[in-house]
Each structure stands twice: as structure tokens, then as C-alpha cells.
Amino acid sequence: VTIHDQQLHRGAGGELHQIAEDGADVLTTAQGGPVADDQNSLRVGARGPLLVDDFHFREKIFHFDHERIPERVVHARGYGAHGFFETYESLSDVTRADIFQRPGEKTPVFVRFSTVAGNKGSADLARDVRGFAVKFYTQEGNWDLVGNNIPVFFIQDAIKFPDMVHAAKQEPDRAFPQAQTAHDNFWDFISLTPESMHMVMWIMSDRTIPRSFRFMEGFGVHTFRFVNEKDESTFVKFHWKPKLGLQSVAWNEAVKINGADPDFHRRDLWQSIQSGNFPEWELCVQLFDQEFADSFDFDILDPTKIIPEEVLPVRPIGRLVLDRMPDNFFAETEQVAFMTQNVPPGIDFSNDPLLQGRNFSYLDTQLKRLGGPNFTHLPINAPKCPFHNFQQDGHMAMRNPVGRVNYQPNSFGEGPQESPSRGYRHFPSEENGQKVRLRPESFADHYSQARQFFLSQTPPEQRHIAMALTFELSKVETVAIRERMISHLLNIDETLATTVGQKLGIQNMPKAADAAMPTRQDLEPSPALSIVER
Ligand code: HEM
Fold first, then answer.
1. Is 286 helix (H, G, I), strand (E, B) or coil?
2. CA atoms of 357 and 349, how far apart (whole Å)
3. Residues 98 and 142: beta-carbon distance below 8 Å
4. Where does heme bind (predicted)?
5. Which of 223, 235, 294, 236 is nearest to 442 (CA)?
6. pTM of the model
């Protein structure tokens, strides 16, 4: 108790009001009222009914009753830590982002790692993509790089995201499986979505059962833009490279770990940071221009494609160190709100249709999840640079404009003003075309990079992919779905397809899939719903 506290707590007669008999702070209600007895409810006589007069009981239970907020619709299970980002060199030639101007400068960050499909209470070692979301508290506002540990994604257009997530999460009638991909709905959707084949190769690899968060890569996935002072744009892909290197566990280890300690990844991060063993990643970029982009036969706007590092090596531009655990899991890790649309001046979007959809989705979902429009007032989400605007009121408003003026322009000379030179300028890309719904032809090749990834793996890694596919598809009861998957694998690698097909006991191998999306007509005549005898 400080002297200041003691003065506040001292009554007119000098007695200490809010200091308990043993010198600790007095337990109070949320209204600050001191509590005499926190163990026994107010009642009539020793064995009589409880009384509505008991405002302490009512407030305590009321607050407890409202402790839960909706879990994230995806990435519900996560674990976060604080740290810093240190810039290696000035990137002023390509971006005017303040964070990349001065070598050696440190910017505070908060990072949340997560699984995607599992519920909040699911196990850490599920075979799943891991989220790798970084909030940089820059001098020009928050920059959120909301990435994954896999450099590509399942779908090319955000309009498919609800279907993809519905299919991946628990099936609605039985409410399982809670944390893994092995089920009919998931593989049904995947087998009907050829664009997911590159991602499927990655998720069937050991990458989706990482040994710990500390041994994972991270990727911004989409092509973004850096924009410099002269409004010139350079395309950029972001990569996180772990200092400890990349390590995974084997599937049989993952299964045992999940049983023995479902909190394995969070315990690992907690213990390493608490013991001063701070995990570190390098932020690397692939920078390229339009001419380079045009040299590929795939589209750099397609989030199911990578730019191979052999073709365009990554360039380290800074390091991320995690050195402090949150004081409170709920206040920080649960309430943190990452949003792809949080970009500072000098970082801009490309026309990747998945990224553009995400830019709508995150703000929308936070409104619901965090209970209103004022979630930026929470300390974990508030910028750490000066910020001023005329937003006011709403549920839980903790920051309202001070004084009379809450609008602009105003003639009282009060309040913040726009700054054409310092403010965010969107890259003035030229856009024209008809208003249409279509998938561009340049997004049509779904197999080449899936094949490249598979062939880039070592023989044991390739075996793991075959085993994972066999295990996953063996859990799928619908024969047509299994066969449809094999027909895709035939377009990726024939030996892989045959190995998996044989292990699944498929007698007559199907034909290789037509690369085009199957239509309802294609599906109707097939014995789509025959069920394997168990
Ligand atoms: C949450 C990554 C695609 C909607 C997250 C999180 C990550 C992430 C890391 C967890 C953030 C946290 O830790 O709080 C990605 C990546 C994507 C992708 C890398 C593709 C490249 C999408 C798409 C949509 C979407 C296409 C919707 C159109 C959401 C939503 C959340 C979320 C609604 C929950 C946010 C919250 O409640 O805090 N995503 N996502 N994501 N994502 Fe994505």
C-alpha cells in the first residue's frame, strides 16, 4: 500500500477504511463497497432462505454468469506472448512504413499462435494449420500481420470461407470431431475443391504437427504491397523464419502427447519464456515488381501459390523476440483482435480476393466477439502511439472526446486534423473491368505446385504424407469421397496415389480428376453415398 493509497483510504478521523485487519487491501464489490464476509450468503436464520437484499451475492454471481465471451469462429484455441521487433536496415527505398526506417529500432509486438479448427478447449497437437498472428504497435498505428504456418491457403476466394470452415469443424449433428481434419465433411469439401490440393499436401506433411510454436515458420500468405514516399509500389510476401529451425513431431508422438498433455504447446512457450529462453524469428521478405510477377505461369494474386524461394530468395529485414508472457490470459490473449486491414502507411493490399474478403471479415467478427465497437479501448488492442479522433459513445466507451468539439471541420481550432503528407495514402492502382463473378483463368492450375511441394520432400517426409493421407481417408466412410481424393492425387503424384489407394483397399483405381470443379450434374449419377462396411 503506497502513501498515496493510504491517504485515499483514510477517513476523516484518520482511520484506514479500505485496508483489512492484516494490512491487505480490503476485498470490495465492483462498486468499491468493502466486503465483510465472502463465504456465507445472507439468509433468514441459520437454516432459512437466502435474501434478495444480498447485493454482494447477486453482483458476484451476476459477474460470474457472464464470464464467457463467444470463442473465435476459427482459431479459437490460441496462446500469446509479448515481445519486440527489431529492424535490421532502412527499407526507405521500397516502403515509407515508419517501422522499417531506422536500423536497430525496436517496436513492441504481441503474438498469438493458434490452431484453426479445434474448439477453445481442444488439444494442442491436432493435425491442423497453426495461426501466427503478429500485432506490431508501430509509431503510425497498429500493423497486424495475420498469418499461418503454411504459406498457402485452401481456397482462392473469401466467399467460400464459411463453407470451408463449416466442413472443417465439428459436424453439426454429432458435434465431433472437435479438433482434427479426419472426417467425411472435411474431405468431401476438399475433394470437391481442387484449388485446395496444394494446401492439402502441406497439411498432410509434418508441418501441421509442430514440435512447438518455437520451431514453426510463419507466412503472410498473400501478396502485399510496399509503397514508398514517391508512391511507387513493390510487391512483398512476408515470411517468419524460426531461429531454432523447423521441427515437428511424428503422428504417433502427437497422439500420445495429446493424451498426456493437451496443453503441450502452451506449456512449452510459457516455460521457455519464463526461464529466459526467448524464442526468436527473423522477418524475411520476397520483394518483386510487376514484370517479375508477369514472368510466372501462375498468378501472384492466387493465395494457393507460393513464389519458390529458389527462384526468389527471402531477405531478412528484422527479428522478432518473445520475452514476456501476458499478465492475464483473458485480458490479452483472448481479447486481442487481429485484423488484416490494420496496415500503416507504406504497406498496402494487392487484389488477392482472399485478402480482400478478410479485410471485411475481421472487423465484423470482432464487433460481435468483443461485444461492441469499442474493443480498441482495451489495452491489448489500443495503439501505443498517440491517437486522436472524434469517435464517441457506444457500449463500454472508455475514451470520449474531451471538451465541446466532437466533429471536424470546426471553427474553434480544437481537436486533431487530417495530414495529407503523413496520413495513409492508398496506392493509386488503376482498376477497370466489368462487374462479374468468375474465377480468373490465371487461377486455374491446382496441381503443379502441389506436385512441386510433394517432390521437394525427403523420402521419409513423403512417406509421412502418404501415411497421413491413408489415416485421414481411412476415417472417411463415404467411398466416393475417398475415390475422388485418389483421383486428385493422381494429378499430383501417381506413386503417392497408388500407395494411398492400395492401403485403403481401393480395387479399381479411379481416373485422374478433371481439373475443373465438379458440377452437381457430375456428382448426381455417382454412388456418392455408399458407406464402407466397418
Ligand atoms: C482468425 C489467419 C483466411 C476470417 C484468424 C487468426 C489467424 C488467421 C492467424 C487468429 C487470429 C488470432 O490469433 O486472434 C488466416 C489466414 C488466412 C485466413 C492466414 C488465409 C490466408 C480467412 C478468411 C476469412 C477469415 C478468408 C474470412 C473471410 C477469420 C475470422 C477469425 C480469423 C472471422 C476470427 C477472428 C477473431 O474472432 O478474433 N485468421 N485467416 N480468415 N479469421 Fe482468418
1. strand
2. 11
3. no
4. 72, 112, 161, 358, 362, 369
5. 294
6. 0.94
Lowest-pLDDT choice from 128-137, 413-422, 512-521 = 512-521
The string of DSSP letters for 423-480 reads: S-----------------GGG---SHHHHHHHHHS-HHHHHHHHHHHHHHHHT--BHH
The single-letter code of the amino acid at 109 is: V
Whose CA is closest to 339, among 369, 384, 305? 369
Has 161 been labeled as part of a binding site? yes
Atom of ligand 1 nearest to the CA of 369: 37
Whole-number CA gyration radius for the chain: 27
Residue 26's alpha-carbon distances to 13, 30, 255, in angstroms, are 19, 12, 47
32 φψ region: left (φ > 0), alpha (ψ -120 to 50), beta (else): left
Structure letter (DSSP) for residue 1: -
Q: Point out the ligand 1 atom lying closest to the alpha carbon of residue 113.
A: 13
Grid cell for residue 76:
479459437
Q: Longest Cα pair distance anywhere in the chain, in angstroms? A: 93
- Structure-block grid coordinates of residue 215: 520451431
The total of other beta-carbon atoms located within 10 Å of residue 51's CB is 11
Rounded-to-integer distance, Cα 52 and Cα 31, Å: 18
Whether 482 has a binding-site annotation, put simply, is no
Which residue, judged by its Cα, is nearest atom 32 of ligand 1?
Answer: 74
3-state secondary structure of 34: strand
**C-alpha cell read off for 271:** 516455460
